[in-house]
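Q&A log
Question type: sequence-to-structure
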Amino acid sequence: MPEKIVLAYSGGLDTSVAIRWLKEERGYDVV
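Response status: OK
Response body:
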């Protein structure tokens, strides 16, 4: 079961890329 991470973000390009990286490369469940 993947670890969950709760993030507060603005929705900008950099955070969108970071969320995708956390999900795909690190296997986290980002909430």
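Response note: Helices lie at 13-24.
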